[in-house]
Amino acid sequence: MLFSASATPLVPSLCLLAAEKPVNRRPMMMRLSGGGAIGSSSSSSNFDLKTYWGTLMTEINQKLDEAIPVKYPAGIYESMRYSVLAQGAKRAPPVMCVAACELFGGDRLAAFPTACALEMVHAASLIHDDLPCMDDDPVRRGKPSNHTVYGSDIAILAGDALFPLAFQHIVSHTPPDLVPRATILRVIAEIARTVGSTGMAAGQFVDLEGGPFPPSFVQEKKFGAMAECSAVCGGLLGGATDHELETLRRYGRAVGMLYQVVDDEKKTDGAIQMAQELKDKAKKELQVFDDDDDKYSEELVVPLHTFVDYAAHRHFLLPL
Amino acid sequence: MDNADLRRGKPTNHKVFGEDMAVLAGDALFALAFEHMTALSIALVVSPERKIRAVIELAKAIGTKGLVGGQVIDLCSEGLDPNDVGLEHLEFIHLHKTAALLEAVAVVGAILGGRTEEEIEKLRKYARCTGLMFQVVDDVLDVTKSTDELGTSAGKDVIAGKLTYPRLIGLERSRELAEKLSKEADEQHIGFDPNKAVPLVALASYITGRHN
Fold it and tell me: Which PROSITE patterns match (chain A) (predicted)?
C-alpha cells in the first residue's frame, strides 16, 4: 500500500493495532529467499530503518500540515487535508525521494518540498481511484474514503487541486541556492509524466477496462510508477547523472511493484516467483552503488536496500 | 458535478466514455499540459526561470485559487436566494471559474514573451476584466433574449437556478458594469504598440459585442 492505489490496509505480522481484517499474509513473506540479508554491506543489517523512516515521517507530516492551510472555501481544503494528512499514510514516496537525494550528497532540505509534492500527488491519485465511478472503495487506510465523507464532487475537486498545488509547493519552497531552476523543471516534468496518460492514468485505465496488456502492465503503471518517480526526483535533486537516474528508475519501479505484489492477497506460485524476481532486480540495481565505496557512502545506500527488504518482508511496524 | 448531457452541442465526455474514463481523461490532460509546457525541446528558447513562472501561473489558475475554488462555490450556490447573496459572491465564482484561466493564459504569454512586470500586470488586468465582462454580458443576454422571445421579462423562480448579475443588481446596473469593465480592459492597452495589441482588442470586442 506504500505506492499502490489499492485500498487494502497494510497489516504487518507484528501489527499490534486492532486490525480491520485478520492477519493472514504470512506465506509470501516467509518464502522469499534472502530475507533480512542485504546486499554486500554488513552494517546495513544494523541499519535502523524504523527510526530513519519515523524521523522523516514526522518532518514530512509537519511540512504537509503547513503546506495546506484551511482557507476559503474551507470545505475543499478540509477534503484535501483529510487525505494528505491521513493517519495511516506511510509516506513512502517522500522517504524514498529524500533517501535517493542524500545518496548523491544532496541536502535533504533540497528534497523536502518535492517529497511533500509527491505525497500530494499520491494522495490525489488515491482519492480519484477510490471514487464510486472508479474502484468504488468506501474505505482507505482503515477510514472512510474521501468521497464517503465529503461527497464525490468535492473529492474529485480535491484531487484536481492537489496536483497543481504540488507543483506550486516545489517551486515556492525549494531553496534556489540548493537546486538549479533547470532541475526543478525536470522534476516537474518527471512528476507530470508519471501521473499522465503513459503512467498512472494508463495503469488505472487498464485496471478498469482490461485490454491486450501483460498482467504486469497494471502493476508497473499503477504502483511502480510512483516509486520510480520518487527515486528519480530524489536523484535529480541530489545531482545524479543521467546514468545514475536510469538505475534509480529501474530500482524504484521494481520496489514499487514488489510492494504491491507482496501486498496482494493472491499468493500464487507465480506471484511468489514474481516477487522474488522483483526483489533480486531491485537489489541488482543497487549493486552499482554498493560496489563504489568511494563515490557512494555505504550508510547512504543502506536505506535503499532496506526499502526493498521492507517491501518483501515487512518485518516491522512502521510508526504512525 | 453539473450533470450535463451536452457540451458544445455534443454529448459530454462521460456520456460517451463513462464517468471513470472521463475522470481519468481529465487527470491525464492536466498532467499532459504540464509535461508539454516543460518539454526540454523548447528549453533553448525560453529560460528555465521563465518556464517555471509560466508553469506556476497555470498551476495557480487551476487549483483552489482558480478553477477548483470557483467550482466549489458554484456547487454550493445552488438554491441560494439572490436577495441573500452579495455581488462579491457571484464575482468570486466568475473570477475563479472563468477569469482565472483567461488571466493565466494572457500572463503566461506575457512571461514567455519577455514582458516587463508592469506589462504583465496590465495584461493580467485586461484578461480579468474581459473574463468578468464575458459573464456579465452572458447573463444580460440571457435576460434580453428571453424578453425578446417571450415578450415578457424572464419570470424565473428567484430561489431556484443560477445566480446571475441581473438577478443580483438588476439589468440596468449589469449593463453599466459591463461598460465599466470594458473601459477598464481598454485602459490596459495604453503603452502597448497599438498594432501588436490589435488581436487582444478585437478579442475583447468580440466577447462583449456578442449581441451583434
Answer: POLYPRENYL_SYNTHASE_1 (PS00723)
Q: Compare CB distances from B68 to A134, A157, A196 and report the shortest one's residue.
A: A157
Distance from the Cα of residue B201 to its chain's centroid:
17
User: What's the pLDDT tens digit per position in A95-144?
Assistant: 999 999 999 999 999 999 999 999 999 999 999 999 999 889 999 988 99
Inter-chain CB proximity B31 and A197 less than 8 Å: yes
pLDDT digits over A175-207, tens only?
A: 999 999 999 999 999 999 998 866 676 777 777
Fold of B6-209: Farnesyl Diphosphate Synthase (1.10.600)
Fold of A42-313: Farnesyl Diphosphate Synthase (1.10.600)
**Closest approach of B168 to chain A, Cα-based (Å):** 21
Q: Which amino acid is at B57?
A: E
Nearby residues of A19 by Cβ (< 8 Å), 6 or more positions away: A9, A11
Tell which residue, A272, A237, A230, A236, has the closest CA to residue A255: A230
Per-domain residue ranges for chain A? 42-313
Q: With an 8 Å Cβ cutoff, are A165 and B18 in contact?
A: no
| Angle formed at CA A81 by CA A77 and CA A86, multiple of 5 degrees | 165
Cell numbers for A288 = 552499482
Rounded to two decimals, the pTM is 0.86
